[in-house]
Amino acid sequence: MSKMINGEWLTEGDIAIVSSTGEYQREDSVLRNWIGQAPYPAARGRYHLYVAYNCPWAHRTLIFRTLKHLEEVISVSVVKPRRTDQGWVFGDDEYHDQLFSNASLHEIYRRALNDYTGRVTVPVLFDKQTETIVSNESAEIIRMLNCEFNEFTDCQQDYYPESLRREIDKWNDKIYSTVNNGVYRAGFASTQQAYESAVREVFSTLDEIEAHLEQHQFLLGDQITEADWRLFPTLARFDVAYHGAFKCNLKRLIDYPRLWRYARQLYHHNGIAATVKFDLYKQGYYSPSVNRNPLGIVPLGPLIDWVKDF
Asked: Is the pTM of the predicted complex or chain greater than 0.90?
């Protein structure tokens, strides 16, 4: 696996870590500070996001930046959709490092912490003033965007209201384990048993959500919450990427009438469609991989219309 050890970039093959029984194991994020606590006060123009359009964890942060109208408060740089032996890298134009013109994301990590050890992941919430990384944990970044910048935005909607937190957390825990990370557990599994176990969990939860949506507009009834926005990036990638590249192919999203309607409702909500990049999802998930796609060929399909008949 490619990672940094004491500030040095090392390349050691594919990105996946699997157990002795073939199960994919995701490493925890290690840079986890909070905006609003010293030494990181909320401020306009001080913080910068590093994201990849194809990464679902980074997509969460773009969603909340859009929902909370923080485009003029927090700036963004986007890495290229395909990793190289240098990990996440920058290029020209849209994929330029807006702060330092670096060639790769691991240079940002080294700038922040010159003896950093760990994976080099997106998203990254970077502090321009101290030139360090505040956080690389997406679940916590979206909560900061949700509540810590309210004085700089005209959107005061709370997607993690105190009265619903218990139910939101229940949905988050189930969806993270079996769907958000479940598709990766399927795609990176190295044994048949590990793959089948992960896929069954993915579709068991999707089936449960499909049934739930018979009586509810969103996961928490008629109110959109953080739980919906944490599920959405996986749904947006499901048919174009996870169904094929990760072999999550018992059903497609469009085979679930209620889930498909629900996903499109989120897609059409308040500017979210602009954060979705279906072609880049295919480029990223079908990038060259010794185990999954050695030739790096990107499929032309499926062609799915998220707008028609909505």
From this structure: yes
